[in-house]
Structure formats: C-alpha cells, structure tokens
Amino acid sequence: MRWILNELAPDLTIRQAGPDDHPACAAVFLAAYRQAFPLHPPEYYVPERYFESITGEEQWVALQDGRIIAVLSVYWPENFIHSLYVDPAVQGRGIGRRLLAAALARAKGVCELKCDKANKRAVSFYKHLGWREVGEGMAETGPWVRLRK
Ligand SMILES: CC(C)(COP(=O)(O)OP(=O)(O)OC[C@H]1O[C@@H](n2cnc3c(N)ncnc32)[C@H](O)[C@@H]1OP(=O)(O)O)[C@@H](O)C(=O)NCCC(=O)NCCS
C-alpha cells in the first residue's frame, strides 16, 4: 500500500515507494552513491546495485514537483536504516533530515544504521541529528560505525 505520510512543505512530499518508483530511486541512489563513494570503476555504478540492495526492505521517497529527489530504505524487522541518498543537486536543504524523520516516526523502537567511517560527511550528518555511536567493525570496503537513535 502506498500512502502519503506528510506534506512537509508546499514543494516536498514524502511517501512510501512502490515498484514503479524503483528506476527513479536507482537513479538518485547512483548519483549520490557515486558522490559519496567515487573510487569504484565505472561499471560498478549500475541500477542493479540498488535493486539488489533493497531486497526485503521498505523504501520511502521525497518528491519535489513530482520528481523523486531522495530515497531511504529500511529493514523493519531490525529497525535498521539501510540507506539514505539525496540527489546531490538538492543536498543541504533539509531533505535528508525530513526523509529520515518520516521513517523514524514509523519505527516502534530504537533504530540503528551503519555508516562507512570514510564517509565523514554522512557520519557528521547523523551525529548532528542526535545519532550516537554504539559500535564499529571492518568490512571489505573499510571500517564502519554503528549508530543508534
Ligand atoms: C548525508 C545526506 C543523506 C544528508 O542529506 P541532506 O539532505 O544533504 O542533509 P540535510 O540538509 O537534511 O541536513 C540536515 C541537518 O544536518 C546538518 N548536516 C548536513 N550535513 C552535515 C555534515 N556533514 N556535518 C554536520 N551536519 C550536517 C545540516 O546542517 C542540517 O542541520 P539542521 O537541521 O540543524 O539545520 C546526503 O548528503 C547524501 O545523500 N549524501 C550521499 C549519500 C550518503 O552518504 N548517504 C549516507 C550513507 S547511507
């Protein structure tokens, strides 16, 4: 079921995403992913990377003028925010914060997420919003931190 959660501003709508939205979500994901993790070879940045990453998860999107400009994917069984990507062209305008808040409003308890330590911008963003570090680990891609709110 898709439904509109909140009309946060005249030009910003946040709602749950459905399968029809997935290509547009993948485009936003790839643009923001490439910005945050630019060192992969060109063939790494393909829509399939997004489609595979969201299996079993619920997606939420922010739209401006009917266009998807940010996407969040959450795995509810563990209250785990798996990913949050805002179109680079509209970052820094409160869209990531609003989309994250909309997801957290639906959570039944404490939420967690993991973030690459090298992605200092995102780690600072989450800490600014009150997430606190509760763990760390090492992946093939490098060290990560676990954050909780
Ligand atoms: C990280 C990201 C999701 C933030 O979204 P955004 O829309 O640009 O951020 P917002 O404009 O909503 O910022 C919200 C608040 O965080 C603050 N903030 C944003 N970036 C910050 C940073 N690097 N350090 C500290 N605070 C930051 C803003 O000042 C704002 O504060 P306020 O609400 O008190 O005014 C976005 O930049 C992005 O998509 N990055 C690339 C993909 C990525 O790294 N995703 C996270 C990994 S899953």
From TrEMBL:
Asked whether the keyword Transferase is assigned, the reply is: yes
Q: Which CDD domains match?
A: NAT_SF
Q: Which keywords does this Swiss-Prot/TrEMBL entry list? A: Acyltransferase, Transferase
- What protein does this entry describe? GNAT family N-acetyltransferase
Gene3D superfamilies according to UniProt: 3.40.630.30
**Organism from which the protein derives:** Dongia sedimenti
What residues does the N-acetyltransferase domain cover? Answer: 12-149
Q: Which residues form the signal peptide?
A: none
State whether keyword Acyltransferase applies: yes
